[in-house]
Amino acid sequence: MPKLILMDHDGAIDDLLSQLLVLTMPDTELIGVTVTPADCYIEPALESTYKLLQLMGKEQVALGRGDYYGINAFPNEWRARPEIINALPMLINLPKSPDPYLYPSAPDLIIDKLSSATQKVTILMTGPCSNLVMALEKAPELKAKIDEIVWMAGAFRTNGNVQTFQHDGSAEWNVFWDPISSQKLVSYELPLTLIPLDVTNHVPVTKKFLSTLATQIDYKLSNLTGQLWALTLDTIPSYHYTYFMWDLLATSYLAMSEQFTTEIVKANVSTRPPNAGQTYLDSNGYELKIATDVNVGYFYEYILKQYKQ
Ligand code: AGV
Ligand code: CA
């Protein structure tokens, strides 16, 4: 039986690359994709999501539209990137999605897919967790249908990546966007594995990686992903703006969990300034698993291999 995956992403470049990566995994069935309007604008992000499904012959996978907007918005220039993606040569002529307002709302799709699944489902989240929390508040009995939640989120023994007013820099963006839902999710004590900045800091997007990827450009996926990665290099080369393979690393956990070092900890999430969205270790907090290290060489090799399609 294949592993069933429900994915919620928020339309950034590495989210879309992660969706592609899931579709390359053997023995894995993507049963639905929901999009959160966090690091994206929802209409172009749904279009990218649908086009990437088509590219992989998977346009029948159900899509859900996130209608909830978090507490702390992402910078607009980050949110606008999917427009560029939809115009890339391999995507521009693919049919657009049907009217995005015909899609079910994201929490409804999550509820529908979890209730109809005949086995437990793995939930992969590469953006904020609001859609899942809304679904579980509406249908708490569905917690029993979750095998594991893998979430790119948090920063524990390292700085966060939020640089803004009323903030001390300790939070990671996916948690900061909706600290209240994040705190709720952690408090459920479900089988939750976080892939935080502590481990994603080890996997920057490097020119060396892009250069190796370019040597396999005859593969359709290497060609497209090479173009997508190149779009991430428009960042200021200081720590806070370097682009990392944040979501790809979380996604690869589904296929190579044995290459990660993990730790069971007790933790909680702050919901107020100056550290809203900070994930912190707390002996009175809730139990969850965090990844602290990864075999970096193996990870880059794995990605390069999967894109040979
Ligand atoms: O904090 C990492 C999360 C990941 O899910 N996102 C990007 C990834 O999709 C937010 C983010 C942090 N820094 C960024 C981000 C940047 N420089 N550009 C775009 N998004
Ligand atoms: Ca993301």
UniProtKB/TrEMBL annotation:
Keywords, sorted A to Z: Glycosidase, Hydrolase
Report domain Inosine/uridine-preferring nucleoside hydrolase positions.
5-300
Domain of life per record? Bacteria
Q: Which InterPro entries match?
A: Inosine/uridine_hydrolase_dom (IPR001910), IUNH (IPR023186), Ribo_hydro-like (IPR036452)
Q: Which residues cross the membrane?
A: none
The record's Pfam families line, in alphabetical order, gives: IU_nuc_hydro (PF01156)
Q: Does the keyword Hydrolase apply?
A: yes
User: A single GO molecular function, which one?
Assistant: purine nucleosidase activity
Provide GO CC annotations from the record.
Answer: cytosol
Biological process terms from the Gene Ontology for this record are: purine nucleoside catabolic process
Q: What is this protein called?
A: Nucleoside hydrolase
